[in-house]
Amino acid sequence: MKQLVDKYVNKLVSAGLAEEGAPLLGGLDAELVWNRSDPACNELEEVFGALNINSLLFSKPAEPYLSIIEYLAKGADKAIHPNDSETRTFMHDLPVIRDFKSRQITGALKERKSVIIPGYGIVTWGTVSPEQAFIFYSSVCFACFVKFFSDYLTEVRNGTVSKEQARVFERVVRQLTPLPEEPPVLMHGRFRLEEDVYRAISEAGRATVKHHLVDSFFGNVSFRYNNTLYISQTTSSLDELEGCIDPCPLDDSSCTSITASSEFTAHREVVLRTGMNAVLHGHPKFSVIISMDCEKEDCKFRGQCHTRCPEERFVKDIPIVPGEVGTGPYGLCHTLPPAMEGHRGVIVYGHGLFTVGQSDFNEAFTNLLNIERMCSDEYFHRVGV
Amino acid sequence: MNGWSGTILHIDLTNKTHRFEQPDSETYETWIGGKGLAGYYLHPHITRSWDDPEMPVIFMDGPLVGTASPTSGRMCIMSRSPLTGTVGDCSVGGSLGTELKKAGLDGIVITGKSDQLIGIEIIDKSITIRDASTFSGMGISLLYERQRGNGAVAMIGPAAENGVLFSSIVVDGSFAAGRNGIGLVLASKNLKYLTVKGTGRVAVHDNIGLKQAREDIFRQVAATPVLMGEHGIAYYGTGALYDLMDSRRMMPTANFRMTKFKSAHRMNASALNKKYSPKRAGCKGCHILCKKVGKGGTHIPEFETMSHFSALLENEDIEIMVRANALCNEMGMDTISASSTLACYSEITGKKLTGKQIISLLLDIGRGQGRGKELGQGSYRYAASKGQPELSISVKKQELPAYDPRGAYGMALAYATSTRGGCHLRAYPISHEILRKPVATDRFSFAGKARIIKIEEDQNAVVDSLTACKFVFFASSLEEYARVFTAVTGVHSTAQDLLKIGERIYYNERIMNARNGFSSKEDDLPPRFFKEAGSSGSNIKIKPLNRKEFLKARANYYKIRGLDENGMPIKEKASLLGLKWENHKGSELQ
Prior knowledge:
CATH superfamily of the largest domain in chain A: Class II aldolase/adducin N-terminal domain
Strand content of chain A: 15-25%
Structural class of chain A: alpha+beta
Strand content of chain B: 5-15%
Shape of chain B: globular
Number of strands of chain A: 15
CATH topology of the largest domain in chain A: L-fuculose-1-phosphate Aldolase
CATH class of the largest domain in chain A: Alpha Beta
Number of helices of chain B: 26
Distance between the termini of chain B: 40 Å
Helix content of chain B: 40-55%
Oligomer: heterodimer
Number of domains of chain A: 2
């Protein structure tokens, strides 16, 4: 358990979600182990005692998340309500309490997967692994980031930006990590061996995380080789794909795709429709933010944009389509594949960006990077910076 | 009341009388319904023999049944297990739960013994007991045809009437309450069938809240490949797991002597779909629809049945697999125990069974004739009678499902600690050890598994009490279902509140088993898993389980569960959970 606890503490820091020395992560089997001792452990151990869980994470987020979350929490009544896909599907809302007291923390965590405590940080839990606590924490940071920038754009357009909001915005923008000027060089195709396909997928996943085009947990990667789609497994971390790639025959002769990414069907349809072989899906933040910016205030589908948007929307040459995770009636597997035909990438509303490449991941990665850069430029153009 | 109807029906078959009970709201809120409430009614009788006329058999709904809550069509049937001697219960689908609720009943507690074979017919709150002697020995399909006009039908087949220790209760012709030999308890009461038809509606406290929570669950289900992915169980049935278990080298083969089956690719769900072109079917109130019915009404076997009637018996004929499933259903006997008993027989006699022999032996078991008479007592009693009890791959005398524990250490622990014997449904660590939900855990490690198993047992106790289907929890959690529960009943509840009730329900079962002498001695696995390796290959090593590590994990489990070092309940813990502590054998349970 200690090994797992230390692993996810390190991941929080390397992903830029927490400063070194900030996270406090406890794992409980028969005995409770913390990554380090801290006076806050006493309060958190009471939380452990009151909940049927096996891990508990408390940390102050790193900048720029700290400024963003503190700002949003200040204006929240009992919870923050982001509108991105991850929150809608898994987190629902993000409770906020005011005191770092076990009773209040317990009360909030009985209902939801996380709680934000302004001035202190974020607390999340897991029932199976400390990885869950890490994922929930990461989701809170991502969702708040997207909400903050989305709200700011709307307020700019409405002329209602407050002084404090402008001040926080300025500070946050100064702290953004710039995108790399050039994409990394990845393995070149055409791949001759199955082993090369596994290595190329793992390498593309790692590069996507390293360049902050996805938080560690989100996204998926696939490559078609010999009538089989090799695809990252569901809930796999893109920076740790070794051993987490499923070979899924395209002739339906096996059901091994049940542990593959929830976007297997979308990936499969994309390669079949476009003739491309590599598909890369990340959650670059400004692509997500820009996809949620719509000026049609009086649209009858307002509030249902993620499933029912009837418009043909684009940012420059990139289509923006509605669609939910998976294969339900509003699943993105219905909207993404046709939109990908003739395009280098497609953004799914409030969710993320899919790109394609022919013989390896260089083209798909370059597209991912360039489209995110374009969306970032477009965002700052729209807010007048 | 909302969600609950507020009425439990008690039927005494000895005197052919019945009465209605209105439990107070505290009883409902303490036990929820389904498995929890059934355990509450079973506990006072648990030391009786399973065939004591006063031993109840309990059919119990949860508060979500009959509402728009996702996967709410299930219910619980409970008594003391003839096979294991433990508390015996099954979650079962079909329409019985829904009809029962529409009839204004939360459950039925049946005691006594009829002097002749009878059936019970319920229409709303009108109860009729009918002579069923003309149905004696009748198979499930014909009996269902005769009774289906009366609403939902629960029935036993010839196997129960012939004393098979793993006989089932079959609902609506094909939904089996398969495990623990619960059908035999009905047979001991001379009860052949039960029909229920209801015309009422279930009151819901907050329809808008229910709609919101339901949409959240639907969204999560759609995002989960194992459920709604194009190769998921919605389209291929639970057989979708078949390829995965084989590729992970944990498919029990040749009575668990191997863990990889060379013909798996020809016996999988894809092969079944090609051959039988099945359509989707399922329980009332479910949108996943995991049941598959092929051309001409052929019932496609579920995963456990597929695996055990192929790999476990080294059968390479897909038609034999389908026929064996149909035969078990027709006779009313559990496919897992039946196939495992045949595998044990095959190993002891040293003869690999042909397809013809498999079918012939199943018929003999169901009819209680020839070799089938001794095999109908299950693998443990059969193997013990041959002086080789270790060749029964069972826990607490109940045969193991189709996940080899050497390939998933959490499953190893869960098999051992299960309160109803060899079972994958008390906790289902396959969810994270193989299916990566909610996240992946290391399947070859016991680290952290004790607490995970305890939490899962608590959760599944809640799920079987609400009642809902465990499959939906690959996608959702009690966080969402607590909102459903609150919306339906008006009783505000969080996931953690429900887990606390789950802990009470499970501890109650540990107490019931302890009162019948079960302790750590029975919380164990067959020796094969500690001595023999599985089929390694493809960079996957299937090693024997390390006994020391297993025992350490079990000791951790006892500590976390609040049991003593022998797995026995403790008065203080029982008190903390609000459970009445009854002195047994003087002063202490032990």
